[in-house]
Amino acid sequence: MARVSQMRLAVIALLVVSAIWGAHAVIGANVERVIAPLPLTVGRFTVTALCFLPSTYHARKRFRQMSMRTWLTLAAAGLSVAVFYPLFYYQSLLTLSPVESLLIINAAPILAAFLAFVFYRERLTRKQLLGMGIALCGVILIATQASGRGHASLAALLDAVIGMASFAFYTVISRKLFQALPRFDVLGITSVFGAIVLWFIAFVQGKVSVVVQSYAHFSLASWLGFFFIALFVSVIAYTLFGYALPRVPTGLSASLTFYPQALFAALLQWLIIGQLPSQRTFLGGGILLIGTFLLQNAKRKAGAESPLEETLSKDRSSST
């Protein structure tokens, strides 16, 4: 009974995450009218890191017992979710509509299935391959529409694809991390590491003052949008995501997290920006989501525990 209750709570958590991340595309595009992608990302993950810092400090004794392999996995997760994914995603939102960019990002399960095969030897069935092919057709349909608007749109498409690949990589490795380590340890380390790397990037590019000054002329609406991104998108949504991910089967978690996002984004894009997605975007998005549905609901045969899982399991055992 308790397991069923946890399952229901996890499902509700993923639906809330989907709504927040769907709104993120529209609110992020709106905030970017007054701030560039790098200052926005630096500010976002600085606030996120500060929120998780108390729990990270409290868990410092556990960190000493973790293996180098686990630390490298956490660093890779931090780079993918706090640096590459947001920077390229926000860059794509400067040119693409929120729904177009979000739909390409939501093709992450396609690449995640392939990465799971590469890293963990999770077998790809014929039904999964069929789903990947159908979803890819949807991505191509959306991409060809956007690419017809010129070179800037082509660059934005590449940005969205890189962001999608980064999030797919995070999805694959974070599932193992959340299963083996306390979720606030994972969220804290990845956020703090990401914030440090982002400030380093700003320093190397000579843009530290630009980052700070970008927030000097924020209006109330801009601050509200920023704190929604920093607190709801990063802290609350990723906490709920980390809670639900180990408790819900992979296919169901991807379905609940990714599918409703486009609907929330389309509604908010119309209400806030006054822009309805085109018929071709709806068609491409529908094809993409159908393919992803087939991909995630294909039956998978249970495989042996990967070397990474074994290492993480040992780390958890030694830290409890």
Report on this model:
Helices cover 82% and strands 0% of the residues. By secondary structure, the chain is mainly α. It has one domain (1-318).
What is the topological layout?
Layout: H1 2-31, H2 37-58, H3 60-63, H4 68-93, H5 98-105, H6 108-120, H7 126-147, H8 151-180, H9 183-204, H10 208-213, H11 220-244, H12 250-273, H13 279-297, H14 307-319
Helix pairs in contact: 1-5, 1-11, 1-12, 2-4, 2-9, 2-11, 4-8, 4-9, 5-8, 5-12, 6-8, 7-13, 8-14, 12-13
Which key terms come to mind for this protein?
82% helix; disordered C terminus; 320 residues; mainly alpha
Termini gap? 26 Å
Average pLDDT number: 81
**E-strand count:** 0
Task: Report the order of strands and helices.
Answer: HHHHHHHHHHHHHH
Overall spatial form? globular
Tally the helices: what do you get? 14
Low-confidence stretches: 299-320
Q: Specify the helix fraction band.
A: over 70%
How many domains, in number, for the residues? 1
Task: Note the beta-strand portion.
Answer: under 5%
Helix vs. strand class? mainly alpha
Please describe the biggest sheet, giving its number of strands, its sense, and whether it closes into a barrel: none
Indicate the radius of gyration in whole angstroms.
19 Å
Family: Belongs to the EamA transporter family.
Domain EamA: 9-143, 158-295
InterPro entries: AA-Vitamin_Transporters, EamA_dom, EmrE-like
Transmembrane segments: 41-59, 71-90, 102-120, 129-146, 152-172, 184-203, 223-244, 256-273, 279-295
Give a brief description.
By secondary structure, the protein is mainly α. Helix content is 82%, strand content 0%.
